[in-house]
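Predict structure. Chain length: 713.
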Amino acid sequence: MDILGAVSFLGFHWIDILLILGYLAVITYVGKRSVAKVKNQEDFFLAGRGVGKIFQFFLNMSTITDSGQAVNTAAAAFSKGLGGVWLLLAPILSGPYYWFMAGWFRRARLVTMAELFEERFKSKFIACIYACVGIWLSIINIGIANKISLRTFQAMTMKGPEARSVEEQAKIDMYKEYRNLDELYKSKQLPVEKQERYETLSNMHKKNEIAAYVSYTKTWWFYAIYIGFMGAYVIMGGLQAAVVNTMIQGLLILAFSGMMIPIAVKTLGGWGGFADKMPDHMLYFFGSGLDEWSIWAVAAYMVANYIIGITGHQGNMANNGSAKDEITARTGNIGGAYTKRVLTMLWAMCGLLAYALFKDQISDPDTAWGVMSNNLLCVGLRGIMIAGILAANMSTVAGVSVYLSALFVRHLYKPFAQNKSERHYVNVSRISIAGILLLSVYIAVASGGILDILKMLPSLNVIFGAPVLLLLFWKRLTIKAVYVQVIACALIFGILPGVLPKFEAVRQAEWLTQQTAEKTVVRRAPATEIDVQLGRAEKVGQKIEKDMVIAPRSIYFDKVARSDPDNPNSPMAGIGRIKSEMVIAKTVGLNLQNMKPSTLLTLRYLIDTLLPFFILIPISMVTKNVGLDENIARFYVKMKTKVIADHDLDKAELQKSYADPTRFDHTKLFPHTSWEFCKWDWEDTWGFLLGIGLTTGILFTFWLVIQTLLWHS
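Prediction complete.
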């Protein structure tokens, strides 16, 4: 008997189990060792502002990278081709901007992003509102990461046919039937007699009533173990523990992101074998799949989410303020950001390789990563894969929970419990982290589709992204304008889209359940058996021109489906949130039904981008900041004072600036105006050029690889 292979759990070899347990033991030990280093809030929230370049790199890379993004990118590439991965690849275009952003938030010398409003406007109330909105948005992000961690683990612990119940098997059979009919529909080969059955199964799929697989992994025990271990180390050591663990986690992230590619390519017989099995349209950078991510949609999404939205992100102070000096913050930020974009391309390649290898076996794109892992990885590598997946999410969730606890303690708790000891506030922070993690589990269980949530986030991120961007550079911005814009955008983008669908009259309103018109496009793709039978090709796999259907897409809701899936005459009903931007577009008279999905997406993000500024700028022009002139002058002179690693010298430089608020006026790009943009120095220039070079080089290399594959096909 093979003793080594005899012991297993949920399909994992005992060696894999030991590797996973070893990783969990190490991160817990690091958390315990970090407790002694936490003396005050700055130690807990910002690691004492002493993080060096290497740790800063891993902190930034690990905090913005989670396994959900890997699984999601692979799923998008599997189902839509390269054009579907722009949801996560778009930030590479804003990389040069991060060079400046990292410097701004290190120069702020604050603990939380909410303190920007407190310092700039002397308003504790708007800082409190920022804390509430920021905690809400970040808990949604943690919930998404939790949900995809669960899905990935479930996909790697699927039940075999012999272990499924009759009901479970029926759901899987119906899902497979739906995927087959959906493929026929998109290729304009769906028989008329199957149309009604297809619509029934499609409605069931939208309502999550059918499934691609059933897993041994139960939701609640997975979250108990996952959140338990991760919560333990971050509650003990705060950012001190998170920073040390991110190096371990970062190395595991790099390992799990790339390990399957060489194995998959070898299995296919080389890149030529891969190219032969891929439809050309799956390898187009833009316009592939469902024609959603055109170049204009990518640009609009990038501006809304990764320039405006990211500027107001809750973690900017923690991710950049923990660096020992300005150059460390800048190099760590763009180093981590660009490494994440390279990883995104590796994840996309995993999705394409999964399509080439397992297209006929995978009915749900979300399972692509798990199916590849199960089929390609040997004993030991599967353990490293699971440890890497856990590491990717734990590093993200740990960093987020620390800066959320800072927002809670300093802006929601401290105003009502003043003059307590530093130890008291640190202990309350630890308790708040536990609460934040539990709430994120609730979000993970209660939330809808992951892609729909990700598309929604830019609308929410601009609520505070726009005022933060303006307050950094425009003296004229007033507190009254910020109040009006935040309240208006919170209602339009955040509250009403989630509340209104609770009412049946709204959910079933005829104009709100409208969809785009069905469109047909011509694509070059491998021939199927049906194509050969119809005389369109000589053999299966031959590349031919085929008509492909772009299915109708919901305009105003995340999805729409028949209220009764079994009744084709039942009224259509909205599922998920209302896209308030589309309601605004309809109000101004735009004809949305005849637009392509990519045009609708572009329009949505343009409205997200412009609306906050259309509120902030006019109101600021007709209102004033009363009694804040000296305060505003101190704020902007501090933002022009470079950070010195020696804390005492840095404080001395700040005092010089406060004594002479006009000290750096000669550096203003627009003298004698309300705009505080500064002329670039050498560090600004070479950093910007470095960002341009990295963006261009990475994209060009990836494009060249894909063009080579297209040529071979």
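Summary: Confidence is low (pLDDT under 50) at residues 1-7.
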